[in-house]
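fyi for ur records
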Amino acid sequence: MTIAGWPRRIGALFIDWFIALLSAAAITGSGITDSGDASPFWPLGAFFVEVSLVTGLLGYSIGKRVMSIKIIREDGSPIGFPRAVLRTALVCLVFPALINTDQQRGLQDVAAGTMVVRS
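which gave:
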C-alpha cells in the first residue's frame, strides 16, 4: 500500500466539491456561483452527504475514484459507514485536514483510524 500524495488528494477534493456545488444548485434551483435565496450551507451539506455515503459504501468518493485513490482502515479493511461519516465531518471542518502527521495522515484520518492510499 502506497500512501496517496497531496496532488491526488487535492484533485479529488476539488472534484468532490464541484459535484457538491452541482448537486446543491440542482436541489435549490440556483446557479453554481450565486446561491440566490438558498442557504450558503447547501453545498457543504451536499458534500457531506455524498462523500459520506459513497465512501462508506465503496471506500472512495467520486473524486477519489477519478484520482485513483481510496480510503481504508489502518489494518487494510474497508472503512465502513460510521468511520466515513466521522472522517467526512472532520474534513468539512477544514482545520483537521490541514494538520498532518509525519506519515502524511490528516487528523481526520487519525481520528477515524483510516488512511488514503493509491488504488
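The first strand starts at residue 69 and ends at 73. thats all i got for now
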